[in-house]
Amino acid sequence: MTLTAEQRAEAARLLRTAEHHVTPIEPLSSLLPGLDPADAYAVQRDNIARRLAGGATVVGHKVGLTSAAMQRLLGVAEPDFGHLLAGMVHRSGAALSAARYCRPRVEPEICFRLARPLRGPGITVEDVLDATEAVAPALEIVDSRIRDWKITLVDTVADNASSAGLVHGPWTPLAHAPDLAAVTVDLLVDGELVASGSGKEVLGHPAAAIAWLADTLAGFGTALEPGHLVLPGAMTTAPFVTAGQRVEARFSGLGPVSVTFA
């Protein structure tokens, strides 16, 4: 780490204030030029710890930056991760207030629900699939508390990997699910097709992203637990959404999932 404890605490406070008031801030990378990934994860974990102290519960994790395009955009060679809290999880068909977010976007993903723990290092795709109870069609709501999404890697990591919500459809036992790398998805906004993709866009296989996550969490002394939900990464681009819009993702073999922004 390159920042002092006081600087990391200030970064965490700035992000909390931005989220609470729905007022984005300038990039932390410009406000605190010494911010490095280790500092950024410390900032993320500080804010998660404060939420847990306030009664929140961690129900899983999300993986970001799993597509080659996003990695090139931010100049990184590996994904990042954030935490999912119980209050962030919604069922398909939910109507959410757009005013609770700074500038939200949506990403179609295959959500995993674990039956057994995954503790790295050395986790493989096969280990992930063996530990998975079920999968569901999902939309991740991503939101940046950084103004105009002018983010670098450290900005999004500190900001809980830009995670803001999870909307999931019905669960399919993994034994009855199709090959997840071959699953395709169409993303529609107000009934208009805006993007299409497949599971192979996520590090070649969505379970590969979860293997990466389990190995990375081991470095923090934590693991993925039974019952945890995991979002492995976006299968398409992530369009911005505004109040009054309805977003639907149609997954081959898994079904649809939708959310409306009021």
Taking pLDDT < 50 over at least 5 consecutive residues as the criterion, the unreliable ranges are none
Helix content: 25-40%
Portion of residues in beta strands equals 25-35%
CATH class: Alpha Beta
Whole-number count of domains:
1
Order of helices and strands: HHHEHEEEEHEHEEEEHEEE
Instruction: Indicate the mean pLDDT.
Output: 96
Radius of gyration: 17 Å
- According to DSSP, the number of beta strands is 13
Shape: globular
Calculate the terminal CA-CA distance, rounded to whole Å.
Answer: 41 Å
- Please name the CATH architecture: Alpha-Beta Complex
How would you characterize the largest beta sheet? 8 strands, mixed
Q: How do the helices and strands line up, and which of them pair or pack?
A:
Layout: H1 5-21, H2 28-31, H3 37-53, E1 58-64, H4 68-74, E2 80-85, E3 89-91, E4 94-96, E5 105-114, H5 125-131, E6 132-142, H6 153-158, E7 163-168, E8 172-173, E9 184-189, E10 192-198, H7 206-218, E11 229-231, E12 246-251, E13 255-261
Parallel strand pairs: 1-11, 3-7, 4-13
Antiparallel strand pairs: 1-2, 5-6, 5-11, 6-7, 6-8, 9-10, 9-12, 12-13
Helix pairs in contact: 1-3, 5-7
